[in-house]
Write a structure and sequence with these properties.
single chain, about 220 residues, mainly beta, Tick-borne Encephalitis virus Glycoprotein, domain 1, 2 domains, 8-stranded antiparallel sheet, 5-stranded antiparallel sheet, 22 strands, elongated
């Protein structure tokens, strides 16, 4: 489970400060955070997150000159195939500017990294499965295409999300605790509006109002 919310409230739906805890857990290098999937870039400390924008496991075919449209203005283009060496030329472009270019062979991982807060974070990666060319055409097959937002955020203890504050960060968890009391009424929202409550008699049902884009 990537996300969990534990709440203790009284019969009148009043939550004392410190009685609600939201936990985001890193599994592998992924976690949920306020309803959106993120990649955790630091295995020793779960405080560096980038929202996962593309996570394509199916194979994608690109012919020479074709492009695969990514998010946030990025474009992956297969420029050419060099049959003598069994290699393919890939370029990653953002808003018209080439940010990464490489000659790859089958089995290679094409990736783009940014240096963020003292470490390199992989923003884009894909695996070259097949490179093919004959007298008439040429194409490559890609798999495991994965893109994260390049707006990578470092989360620090004390960061606030509505009435919640980051209280603890470990190697695989981020814990937020309410620092102010909360009264749960119908349509009450918490965690910057991500989670709302439906109140019907004595029944209280939480539900996700929206998916928060990135981190605030």
């Amino acid at each position: 489970m990537y996300e969990e919310l534990n709440v203790h409230f009284s019969d009148d739906r009043f939550i004392e400060a410190g009685d609600a805890n939201y936990t985001a857990t890193v599994i592998g290098d992924k976690t949920g955070f306020l309803g959106a999937m993120h990649r955790s870039f630091d295995p020793a400390h779960a405080d560096l997150l980038g929202r996962i924008l593309v996570n394509e496991s199916d194979e994608v075919r690109l012919e020479i000159g074709e492009s695969y449209v990514l998010c946030d203005g990025y474009l992956l283009t297969m420029r050419d195939i060099f049959v003598t060496g069994g290699t393919a030329w890939l370029e990653l472009v953002k808003e018209g500017e080439v940010v990464e270019s490489s000659i790859c062979v089958e089995g290679d991982v094409f990736e783009y990294k940014l240096y963020i807060t003292g470490r390199y974070a992989t923003i884009f990666e894909c695996t070259i499965v097949t490179i093919f060319q004959d007298d008439k055409s040429g194409f490559i097959l890609l798999k495991d295409i994965r893109q994260c937002s390049d707006d990578v955020k470092k989360i620090n203890p004390g960061c606030r999300y509505g009435k919640f504050e980051v209280s603890r960060i470990t190697d695989n968890r981020i814990v937020l605790t309410n620092t102010e009391s909360i009264t749960i009424d119908d349509e009450t929202s918490i965690l910057n509006g991500w989670l709302k409550f439906d109140v019907s008699g004595n029944s209280v049902t939480p539900y996700a109002e929206q998916q928060i884009g990135g981190l605030v």
